[in-house]
Amino acid sequence: MLSQGDAGSAVWDFYLDNIIVPAKARIRMALSPAVQGESDDRKVFGNLDNVDTDACVDAINRGGEHIWGIAINVSPPCTNGTDPKEVMRRTLEAAERTGKPLLFGARIETAEWPLAEQLDLLRHGDVLTYCFRTSAQSIVAGGHVIDAAWRARERGVLFDIGHGMASFDFGVAEAAIAEGLPPDTISTDFYRRHVESNPRHDMARTMSKLLAAGMPETEAFERVTARPAEALGMKGEIGNLAPGACADLAVLRWNPDAAPLADVNGVTRPGGCWEPVATVRAGEVVRPGPA
Fold it and tell me: Is the dihedral of CA 120, 150, 186, 28 positive or negative?
């Protein structure tokens, strides 16, 4: 799993020793450029003084393989009154100095910073997450994918689902897939408080929503296995069943009678759903499913 900004430079060493090292799950970090990282009691970028480029670079240099890249979300709930463009400038500087990709959440709730300008800042290997989200702005406008999204795809920017409580819209997904802009990776923006949330967005159900939106099954499976492995720089190690790869397996079964699949706006699609049977981590069954 990829941790999206849970730690910043000030808490990185604690996070490594107390979360990553003892965890059964394999965790890679998208480090926050804010020194404290994500927090329940403050806006992550609410204080510009906490967006410390030098400290971020230093933590990445210490982190080695544990740190995949840098996470930035410039939406109003994350920046509060802070200038999102300055947050982005500092984050890009840290990314350039370390050679790391960005995991980027765009500012689409308002229109004062056009989405096209934000997308044009992203580089080869950077990841636009929440890609099928809709609000005042979206990668789909008037039923068609915007030009800036096509330019980003051509530069090698990756498009990621990041399905959470506000980040998946069937209309956007269906239009983008129909026009030839499917996601590069299918993922969930999943927290402990999301376990009983509505709409349900566990990985198997999120993958099923992409099938309902028009993705061929083989492409959907590729985007929860081989494609994420490649994006994380772990091709050949995870995401495949070849000899020598780590035995991390998800066993699924198809339920044609599952409840309708819902997006964050309550729009539903029928069509059945993949459901988990068992999870295997490094050859060990860590979560058996129902009999």
Answer: negative
- Cα dist from 186 to 116, 219, 283, whole Å: 23, 10, 24
Strands (E) across 13-120 are located at 28-31, 67-73, 102-105
CA dihedral of 78, 81, 85, 90, whole degrees rounded to 10: -70
Q: 236 in a domain, yes or no?
A: yes
Give the DSSP letter of residue 240: S
Six-digit token string for 214? 């028009």
SS3 content of the chain, % helix, strand, coil (to 5): 30, 20, 45
What are the Cα distances from residue 51, in Å, to 8, 29, 88, 128?
Answer: 9, 17, 10, 20
Could you tell me the residue range of the domain that residue 214 belongs to?
2-245
CATH number at residue 132: 3.20.20.140
Tokens of 182: 């499917």
- Residue-wise pLDDT tens digits, 4-29: 999 999 999 999 999 999 998 899 99
177 residue type, one letter? I
103 forms bridges with which residues in the sheet? 71, 127
Q: What backbone phi and psi angles, to 5 degrees, belong to 123?
A: -115, 170
Query: What does the pLDDT look like over 90-120, one tens digit per residue?
Result: 999 999 999 999 999 999 999 999 999 999 9
Angle, to 10 degrees, between the axis of helix 170-178 and the axis of helix 203-212? 60
In a domain, 149, yes or no: yes
CA distances, 94 to each of 72, 79, 104, 228 (Å): 11, 18, 14, 23
